[in-house]
Amino acid sequence: DTTKGVIATLGIAVSSGLAGVYTEKVIKAQRKASVARQNYSLAYMQVQLALVSLVLLDYDMIRDKGLFQNFTNGAFLSVLNSAIGGLVVAAVLKYADAVLKGYATAVSVVMTGLLSMALFGTKLNALYFLGIVNVVCAVLLYSGKNLDKHAC
Fold first, then answer.
1. Please, which of 30, 38, 48, 65 could form a disulfide with 69 given CB 3.0 to 4.6 Å?
2. Measured CA distances, 134 to 11, 61, 141, 150 (Å)
3. Are 24 and 96 in contact (CB under 8 A)?
4. Is the pTM of this model over 0.85?
5. Helix 98-120 and helix 2-29: axis angle, to 10°?
6. Alpha-carbon distance 147 to 56, whole Å?
7. CA 19 – CA 29 distance, rounded (Å)
8. Residue 152 pLDDT more than 60?
9. What are the residue ranges of helices labelled H in 30-97?
């Protein structure tokens, strides 16, 4: 049903925008500890939980076959991709605002669609290309300087 899809999409957009603004407010308002220190604290807790999980759930298997059993190149690339993505998110949270994060998400959707078309032969319709034009114009208007001097 089209109406349900539009309502769901609007709900996702609104909740995502509110979450982005709230996260930015919380992170930038509380500068008692540096971002690096907060990241170390979160990573430390995550490592502790992962170690407890390994010991409780997989200790025998790890002891018998090693920690990296069945760890293929694809798994390695997935871990590397997640690590790089985490670093990018941390940089965006530190140096950008919520509007810029929204534009980055839109640009990534555009790039994913174009790469999918080029690499996998995905058929994109006219509405997708209209969306691309919309994203490009929004990014240019947001980041452009002295647009009033160059306007017709």
1. 65
2. 20, 52, 11, 19
3. no
4. no
5. 130
6. 60
7. 15
8. no
9. 35-65, 73-95
